[in-house]
Amino acid sequence: MRLCELRDKEVINVCDGERLGNVCDIEFEEKTGQICTLIVPGPCKVLGILGRDQEYLIPYRNVCRIGSDVVLVEIDTERCLKKCKWD
Fold first, then answer.
1. What value does the CA radius of gyration of the chain take, rounded to a whole number of Å?
2. β-strand 19-22 against 81-83: which pairing, if any?
3. Which helix (H) or strand (E) holds 63?
4. What is the pTM of this model?
């Protein structure tokens, strides 16, 4: 599967049914080419208009299933929500 195909899929947490957003990037192991982490933009700052300063870093081992429209993950959202690296 290509990154462009993952970007079209919505990420949903099976623990609470929350829609987290769409995959914006991935981290992978250079030597093996295996995906390590899915990166999904976090919630908006204020009223959805001021951008985002956090992102969900979802370990690939927490991906339950990749379907035709969605990626199901099982995560603790508070533990996976991190400050953006570019800030």
1. 13
2. unpaired
3. strand 63-66
4. 0.84
Rounded to the nearest 10 degrees, how much is the dihedral formed by the CA atoms of 71, 75, 81, 82?
A: -100
Q: How far apart are CA 66 and CA 73, in angstroms?
A: 9
Task: Answer yes or no: are the C-beta atoms of 52 and 21 closer than 8 Å.
Answer: no
Identify the H or E element spanning 22: strand 19-22
Q: Which residue has the tokens 């990749």?
A: 66
**Rounded to whole angstroms, how far apart are CA atoms 33 and 28?**
6
More confident call, 62 vs 45: 62
User: Which pLDDT belongs to residue 43?
Assistant: 79
Report how far residue 67's alpha carbon sits from residue 80's, in angstroms, rounded to the nearest whole number. Answer: 22
CA gap 87, 81 in Å, rounded: 14
